[in-house]
Amino acid sequence: MGRPPCCDKIGVKKGPWTPEEDIILVSYIQEHGPGNWRAVPTNTGLLRCSKSCRLRWTNYLRPGIRRGNFTDQEEKMIIHLQALLGNRWAAIASYLPQRTDNDIKNYWNTHLKKKLKKLQAGVDDGHNQDGLVSQAPISKGQWERRLQTDIHMAKQALCEALSLDKPSNTISPESKICPNYTGPALQSSTYASSTENIARLLEGWMRNSPKSAQTNSDQNSFIHNPVPTGSSSSEGALSATTPDAFDSLFGFNSSTNSEASQAVSAEETANFSTPETSLFQDESKPNMEKSRVPLTLLEKWLFDDGAAAQGQDDLIGMPLDGTAGLF
DNA sequence: AAGACCCCCAACCGCTAACTT
DNA sequence: CAAGTTAGCGGTTGGGGGTCT
């Protein structure tokens, strides 16, 4: 028996999601939490395959996602992490908790690849045009030296990237490894208007719903206890959340210029946040920890000698096959 | 003003690792 | 342990919006 399709091809809707579908999905996940995606289309009545629902959630509806306007620091980090990890977008995304792997992948393919290519063309001295590392034939000794150098540079670059911007009170695993690192960037970029729109949409929708206000503790109880406690339709779950609570629950605020809301979002979405803030992060990137484990070990190894042994001068003077020209 | 072209990104597809029975 | 099932990942595509001519 072959592998069955993830969903019946007949009657499955494809293409862009409508706000209504988003609402249904969000309200369902709000009630049941992410996971068990196979049950989502059945239980919600959405004419979407489970995969599509998961993708929609992880790439778009998931709280705390920052979209567009990649900062220099993020760019830098992506470039170096890509050099270090290759096209392991999920792993790279785990270091940028506010970005989805899809987003990073898209950004890499549409912006960074081009940028690096251009730069490499400018400084081409035997390196090829396609990647960071020359594919020209080299001797084994050269290759080993090169590998060592690449690892060395990647170490430094990662340390550097992680040390860029820092809310002062955040204590992260990275901060232990790399003393300069104190957390993810809190930049001026805004969340996706589309996410906002959904929040607004929900806001309006909820205003019309029979139930209105609930206490924050109720919202928090959802955060702390995502398992449904009793009977309810998705509609009930949604109506049990006030717009404000929804904002706080989802870690964003409809006023995107609010520094406070951004701070909250960043904090809540940070992978290194406290357990009580991390329901969605834990669930939306369930294998993040898994994928991070070897990386963390790697980082430890990277930073143990990298951060201590190398001065900042080296960072400046040590281009990552031409990428340093970017900065 | 309008058609052609380009770019971006949301979503899809296929593969595979991980989990369950 | 093997077969079946599910979730997640990375590559790719296509539609829509923006820019150019």
CATH-defined topology of the domain at 72-116: Arc Repressor Mutant, subunit A
Return residue spans where pLDDT drops below 50 for at least 5 consecutive residues.
Answer: 1-8, 125-141, 164-195, 206-299, 301-327
Q: Tell me roughly what share of residues is in helical segments.
A: 55-70%
How much of the residues is beta strand, in percent?
A: under 5%
Number of helices: 16
Ends apart, CA distance between termini: 54 Å
Q: What is the string of helix and strand elements? A: HHHHHHHHHHHHHHHH
In round numbers, the mean pLDDT is: 56
Question: How many E strands?
Answer: 0
CATH homologous superfamily descriptor of the domain at 72-116: Homeodomain-like
Overall CATH class of the domain at 72-116: Mainly Alpha
Major sheet: none
Which structural class best describes the helix and strand composition?
A: mainly alpha
Rg is 22 Å
GO cellular component, one term: nucleus
InterPro entries: Homeodomain-like_sf, Myb_dom, Myb_TF_plants, SANT/Myb
Biased composition (Polar residues): 260-281
Keywords: DNA-binding, Nucleus, Repeat
What does it look like?
Among the domains are: 19-61, Orthogonal Bundle (Arc Repressor Mutant, subunit A), CATH 1.10.10; 72-116, Homeodomain-like (Arc Repressor Mutant, subunit A, Orthogonal Bundle). Helices cover 56% and strands 0% of the residues. The protein has helices spanning 19-32, 39-44, 50-61, 72-85, 89-93, 101-122, 140-162, 173-177, 193-207, 216-224, 234-239, 243-250, 259-269, 279-284, 288-309, 312-317. Helix 9 packs antiparallel against helix 12. The model is unreliable at 1-8, 125-141, 164-195, 206-299 and 301-327 (pLDDT under 50). The structure holds a DNA duplex (21 and 21 nucleotides).
